[in-house]
Write a structure and sequence with these properties.
By secondary structure, the chain is of the alpha/beta class. The protein is built from eight helices and 13 strands. It is globular and about 50 Å long. The relative contact order is 0.17.
Amino acid sequence: MPNSSGLTRMGPVTALLDATGLFFTSARDAFPGAAPADWAAAAALDPGAVGPDGAWRLDFRCFAVADPGGSGWTLIDAGVGPAEGPGAPWCPVPGRLPDLLTEAGIDRADVHTVVLTHLHEDHTGWVADAADRPFFPSARYVVQGAETAALDRQDPVWDWVVAPLRAAGQLHEVDGRHRLRPGVTLLPTPGHTPGHQSVLVERPDGRDVLVTGDVLVHAVQLVAPAVAYAHERDPATARSTREELLARAADSGAVLATAHLTRPFVEPPTAPAGRPPGRRAADAR
């Protein structure tokens, strides 16, 4: 269950709420294809996202995955970052990830891997500091090669993330599905960006957790996966990816770990009739 500090745990996965704020356009402008029934269902699922006068209130969240035996941590995404980070023009900065890590008992030096689902400002803010030093000094930062290849060198994330990590020898580019360690697998999920990836955390003693990144960014895309987001790079691919990922979660019984819904862990849509149910366990704590 969540606590007032912004930590929510489900087994070895800890959700870290770096920031909360209003988006720079209304929800209906961000998802112009949604129907009235879709908005009603989305509001029932995630009422916290409904801001004043149609505004979209969203969370900016990272996830920490504990190694078996407590030997270290994998961090998935790096939040909005400090006040001087690349997300400052539109994100609710500064984020509070450093304080949350301390509260969760996570030393930055014990984070051995940082997975970046994609290279948008609100997912890369705590990658480095203003002096171009990696924020997690011992970590390898893992991103899809297709993502860095598609990033414009004029994008502020290039100088905040790609350039300093390459200079430090800490940027690790992978190609396609990639197993980080037993039980943690990177899944290519393109569309939102060309090299977007999600993360599957498999749990033999409980429910798998599927960290979605920005495959879905609002509950309206959970209740109506065909609804496009105005800032998807390739809406057709994003839709196909979203439908496939949600079907996979429904088939397996995995819980979804979301970056921007105001609930960190949510159920996938029900599997179609005739598919076997996945594993179920009410083990959030």
